[in-house]
Amino acid sequence: MNDAPDSPASDQKGRDYRKTVFLPQTGFPMKADLPNREPKLLARWAAAGSWNRLREKSQGRPPFVLHDGPPYANGPLHIGHALNKILKDVINRAAQMSGTDANYVPGWDCHGLPIEWKVEEEYRAKKLDKDQVPVLEFRAECRAYAAKWLAVQSEEFQRLGVAGDWANRYATMDFASESVIVEEIGRFLMNGSLYRGLRPVMWSPVEKTALAEAEIEYMDHVSPTLHALFRVLRAPAMPELAGSDVVIWTTTPWTIPGNRALAYGPEIQYALLHVDHVNEGALVKPGARLVVALALLPQFCAEAGIATHTLIKTFPGTAFAGAACAAPLRGHAGAYGHEALMLAGDYVTDDAGTGIVHIAPSHGEEDFALVVAHNRAHPEARIEIPECVGDDGTYTLQAPGFEGIHVFRAHEPVYAAMTALGTLAAKGKLNHSYPHSWRSKKPVIYRATPQWFIAMDDGNQIRQKSLDAIAATHFVPDIGRNRIGAMVAGRPDWCISRQRAWGVPIAVFVEKRTGEVLRDASVMQRIVDAFRTEGADAWYQPDAAARFLGNERNPDDYEQVMDIVDVWFESGSTHAFVLPPRNLPFPADLYLEGSDQHRGWFQSSLLESVGTRGVAPFKAILTHGFVLDESGRKMSKSLGNVTAPQEVMTKYGADILRLWVMNSDTAEDLRIGKNILEQQAELYRRLRNTLRWLLGNLAGFEESERVPVAEMPELERWVLHRLTELDGRIRKAAKDYDWNGVVPEIHAFCATDLSAFYFDIRKDSLYCDAKDSLRRRSARTVLDQLHRCLCAWLAPVLVFTAEEAWLSRFGEEALSIHQQDFPTLPAEWRDEALAARWVEIRRIRKLVTASLEDHRRDGLFGSSLQARIGLTLPGQTLSAEEWAEILIVSQAELGQGEEVALDVALAPGAKCERCWRVLPEVGASAAHPTLCLRCEAAVEG
């Protein structure tokens, strides 16, 4: 799209008509220079107190609250942070410009493992032991570390153009926050849902703490395996099994010392076989009588090196009822003399292994549940649940003969002990997906320890209430409902305790004599009040127990619990210390995070709020995907494919990053890299060029020029109709929080409807018509509306560019575009019949311009303005003059026929030196012999 004619407008007498052409004039540069321009706009907004002015302006409006899910304050921002905060900012700004009071309070998660692990790394680098540091000193270092990165991240978020109440941000480590968090724990304590119990949890031996499911990632891992023999001591339903060996297979040999039972499938068919011959090196001896699932017999024989065997009998799993076996370590270190009872387990299959599962109740959820159910039904035959493994992953005294050995190095000692006892049938290795700690990247284990839980199905009915709340929540995309619903339906009780130092303690007391947790509202209130003024450090003071228990209780009679609460509980309770205390509505309108938060923040927030208030803390949930490189790979420093938002802003500017987010389908995984960013920069240039062209052609626009819609040409009224369509699209996106496709649609409007069509047609009128002509004034009236609408619609996305384009027109003293609302467009602009009519006009134009281009290539003319066309149409649509404008030819003649037909020829006449149209009238004027009549009138005017 050319801004102006590229040759002088002068006649044969040397007259210069250039000053009579209304060429675009604007100080809005084509070169954006965003890396330098954006910080200046940020400084302008800060100096003007823009956020506070917006809040003052919004008083009395309906509130809108997108409650911020807190990122961890433990390092610089990555591209996922940028995606998340930009999407939030667009939705907040759009809500504000739609007429609400969109007060956004950003926040940070500052406690727990992510921070503590970083501080511990500094100790390890200095070869110091963190456990030797006084707890209050260590907590102070964690607080300082979190405060440092909170400040860095805050500055980086603001550099992205994210608007919010940064001066009054929230943080989980603020004293007021810590006070509310412990108060929320107290709510569960007082309503009876909080209890202490023994249950296997995901445990990190490296970090020495329980982990939440959201802190786990699955990675490839090579595990040692073994087949173990359990000698059948008795089998009431099938006596001939006595003396045979039941075979199990496990990928966790380290759990063998914790074995206390076996599980079988009642519906599975099993085989009793006699070993005839074995291969060299086999551990199984000829003559052995073994029991495995019939379907898995060939696989087992191959793995155990059994060359030939005799099938003695097949039988159903029900024949194991009442059977008991000897543990495979019986006699080792003079211990393991217990019986391993055989229990029916409906989860046992014959898909892999041997069809019989070894049960270590301390090291598996299903194992634990099976044993607990047995103990409840048969207290006379109770199965113990030993604590064989300590916090650091080494065996305790309850694993005789293996004390002090780390479980991940235990397979060789276990192999050796079982070989000596004759109970090792085979050993091997398996490469499989295994849970690892998200932080340390080290394998984790299941370990039964005393932990604090929130009951899902007690009298509080948190599970059912949560499922009901999910059904009433609006999800974007809707598939999120099923994801979180399935997780809540199947999850166990919520383990909220962690064995760490940096966080809010589970500030409760347990009576030593009875083991009962103390439920005393006055004690809890003293704790809450102290935390409000002193922070959670008050719990770690030497006199804390006496202070909080009060004079009526002896602190020696109580255990002061030192576990801290799970950080997911903390972040899940942010609604309690962010929304009501700041007079923000509860529940929040929207929670927005990555799709992984169905098992993280969305779920913990739901359970916490339902458990304390009976309702969800949100009305809607929006999820976005993750960021991958251009090839669809996960970003990794080792692969060298990381795109850092800081680098993007330094090279391109934040608006390019924001455009990338909003040009993507954020419900899916997004891709980014050098080529994609260059594409976004090119798309940005087209949008910027549109704004620049508008500004150039609006120079000097005055209200007196404005033309009523009814008096405008059809073309202008069609543009106004298109604005109403886009207005509806944007308002729906703001209402539904679904911006997928909106920015591409705006870009297409600018590139196709405006630059390639409307601007291309109307630049002749804008440059060459008389200043007061109806056509020119109509076009400028429409350009005014285009500028106002595009600046407003782009403001939530291109926050810096929209502001620059706004101020470039209205001056540095003008009110910011971000203080405006979306324009309210008159209903009479919408004209569906007109729109349908112009669909056909544009179709015909496309056919004609293609033909004109063919003639130009063939050398008939160099410019379409040298052409005259004869156009036959099925019906009368526009005048010949209007068709000439639309087709950008100098002359047009119309005819009627059943089909569109076209005749193209060189236009007769001479070229007007001012507008370049070829017309017979050029030369008719003695005063201006090189001008057409229109240009002569414009010049004389």
UniProtKB/TrEMBL annotation:
Cofactor(s) the protein needs: Zn(2+)
Keywords: Aminoacyl-tRNA synthetase, ATP-binding, Cytoplasm, Ligase, Metal-binding, Nucleotide-binding, Protein biosynthesis, Zinc
Sites where the protein binds ATP: 637
Domain Zinc finger FPG/IleRS-type, first and last residues per copy: 911-936
Motif ('KMSKS' region): 634-638
Cellular localisation: Cytoplasm
Domain Methionyl/Valyl/Leucyl/Isoleucyl-tRNA synthetase anticodon-binding: 716-856
Pfam families named among the record's database cross-references: Anticodon_1, tRNA-synt_1, zf-FPG_IleRS
Coiled coil: none
Residues involved in L-isoleucyl-5'-AMP binding: 593
Record-linked CDD domains: Anticodon_Ia_Ile_BEm (cd07960), IleRS_core (cd00818)
E.C. number: 6.1.1.5
Reactions catalysed according to its record: tRNA(Ile) + L-isoleucine + ATP = L-isoleucyl-tRNA(Ile) + AMP + diphosphate
Domain Aminoacyl-tRNA synthetase class Ia: 41-672
Residue span of motif 'HIGH' region: 71-81
PROSITE patterns in alphabetical order: AA_TRNA_LIGASE_I
Manner of cofactor binding, per the entry note: Binds 1 zinc ion per subunit.
A GO term for molecular function: isoleucine-tRNA ligase activity
Binding annotation for Zn(2+): 912, 915, 932, 935
The keyword Cytoplasm appears for this protein: yes
HAMAP family referenced in this protein's UniProt entry, alphabetically: Ile_tRNA_synth_type1 (MF_02002)
Domain note: IleRS has two distinct active sites: one for aminoacylation and one for editing. The misactivated valine is translocated from the active site to the editing site, which sterically excludes the correctly activated isoleucine. The single editing site contains two valyl binding pockets, one specific for each substrate (Val-AMP or Val-tRNA(Ile)).
Subunit structure: Monomer.
Similarity annotation: Belongs to the class-I aminoacyl-tRNA synthetase family. IleS type 1 subfamily.
NCBIfam families named among the record's database cross-references: ileS
UniProt-recorded name of the protein: Isoleucine--tRNA ligase
Organism lineage string: Bacteria, Pseudomonadati, Pseudomonadota, Alphaproteobacteria, Acetobacterales
The encoding gene: ileS
